[in-house]
Design brief:
The chain has a 5-stranded antiparallel sheet with strand order 3-4-5-6-7. A two-stranded antiparallel sheet has the order 1-2. The protein is built from 9 helices and 7 strands, in the order H-H-E-E-H-H-H-H-H-H-E-E-E-E-E-H. It has helices spanning 16-29, 37-44, 66-83, 85-88, 92-103, 109-117, 120-123, 126-148, 208-243, and strands at 47-49, 55-57, 155-158, 169-178, 181-192, 195-203, 206-207. The chain is of the alpha+beta class.
Length: 244
């Protein structure tokens, strides 16, 4: 569970290495910081259509299958994180820049936010939905940027996947190897017209969406969607000041 009265972070204690894995998994899968997802992806021309009908985003990331997406994206992000001194220093602006440019085309964080909010999403205005996505993304950046700076020797071992040939929603199991110790991390992906997109992550038997849903629901019941937005904004402001 998360403590909604403070910063909406896991209240349970995890080993430091596990927190680093969580930071990497969250950064990789939900790509916190994806403002203007649809418009930015369109403007950047992130997805190019091949003559065969398959999709191949720029940057060498293969999203033709869920396994290949997780494998190539993992390698790309790990290489960037390991080589970037600003990320090592916990620079939240640099981390946000990286996820915007490198992870943006391969996630559906709007769906992540919609599922975490639950039924209240239907009553939220378009402007409120956009603001919820933005503030939730920023919250994750603040909460995990420090741990992301600790990513070092990790590698990702993608497990064989069994799914029907026509499946459009699947789970890819991986082991993130850190210090010789495997940490199971699972990714939930949905097939879109653009290719496979990640929208949820499971670390230590806890799905990200499921972890935040009761917290969002509690805030909405207490003060409505505007109250949840105000709460997230305040927490992000507080965390920004703490970071400074």
């Amino acid at each position: 569970m998360y403590d909604t009265t403070t910063v909406m972070r896991p209240s349970g204690t995890r080993p430091r290495s596990a927190r680093s894995i969580l930071a990497f998994a969250v950064s990789l899968s939900v790509a916190c910081g994806l403002q203007g997802m649809a418009s930015t992806a369109s403007a950047q021309g992130a997805v190019a259509t091949h003559a065969t009908g398959a999709t191949q985003p720029k940057g060498g990331i293969d999203d033709s299958s869920p396994q290949s997406l997780v494998e190539t994206l993992s390698a790309s992000i790990l290489n960037t994180v390991k080589a970037d001194p600003q990320i090592k220093a916990g620079d939240t602006r640099r981390i946000e820049q990286v996820v915007n440019t490198q992870l943006l085309p391969y996630t559906d964080f709007r769906k992540t936010t919609r599922l975490a909010l639950g039924p209240a999403w239907r009553t939220a205005t378009p402007e409120q939905r956009d603001e919820l996505v933005k503030q939730f993304e920023l919250l994750l950046i603040h909460l995990y940027s420090g741990a992301a700076a600790k990513v070092g020797d990790q590698t990702v071992d993608v497990q064989p996947m069994r799914a029907a040939a026509d499946a459009t929603d699947v789970v890819v199991q991986t082991n993130v190897i850190s210090g010789g110790q495997p940490y199971p991390v699972a990714y939930r992906l949905e097939k879109s017209e653009a290719g496979w997109r990640i929208y949820d992550v499971n670390v230590a038997n806890l799905w990200l969406i499921a972890a935040y849903r009761p917290q969002f629901s509690s805030q909405v019941q207490a003060s409505g969607v505007p109250g949840l937005i105000a709460f997230l904004k305040q927490r992000n402001q507080d965390l920004t000041q703490q970071g400074k």
